[in-house]
Amino acid sequence: GRALEFLALPPHQSECAMIRKATKGVGASVSVVWSIICGRTNGEMELLKKTYFQMYSKDLGKVLASETHGNMERLVFNALQAAEDAFDPTYHTLDKAREDAELIHKYGQGRLVG
User: Fold this and answer.
1) Rounded to an integer, what distance in angstroms lies between the CA atom of residue 65 and that of residue 52?
2) What stretches in the chain show pLDDT beneath 70?
3) DSSP H helices in 26-90
4) End-to-end alpha-carbon separation of the chain, Å?
5) DSSP 41-52
6) Which of 23, 35, 75, 112 could form a disulfide with 67 if both were Cys (CB 3.0 to 4.6 A apart)?
7) Rg value, the chain, Cα
């Protein structure tokens, strides 16, 4: 039934239809929204937002803002901004990842522990 309907659409339209189904009724199916929204490139996110508007005449950001709350709302809002830096192998190195992890720990959990 529903799976075949999704498979019959191009991927970006199928994902918009899945988001629409996940946000119908009371509350949103967070696992569906999460799996579609997170991990996209800037171009993919822009295509998703544009396609959603073309299909449903509604702004994806407003729909998700009304259906999510708290940390999930902030996560979705940040993902929808499509402000991810493009991967640069000269900048995004293992040493840089370790440095960032240490800073996050220092100002997060490390600050609480001592």
Assistant:
1) 15
2) 27-28, 109-114
3) 30-37, 42-56, 60-67, 70-80
4) 55
5) -HHHHHHHHHHH
6) 23
7) 17
pTM for this prediction: 0.70
Q: Check residue 87 and give its pLDDT.
A: 83
Tokens for 44, please give them. 């993919």
Tokens of 84: 């991810």
Helices first, then strands: H and E counts in the chain: 8, 0
Q: Which two tokens stand for residue 22?
A: 């996940």
| CA atoms of 29 and 19, how far apart (whole Å) | 9
Residue 87 sits at the vertex; the CA angle it makes with 105 and 35, to the nearest 5 degrees, is: 70
The pLDDT assigned to 110 comes to 64
Q: CA–CA separation, 19 vs 76, rounded Å?
A: 12
Contact assessment for residue 21 and residue 2, using Cβ atoms and an 8 Å cutoff: yes
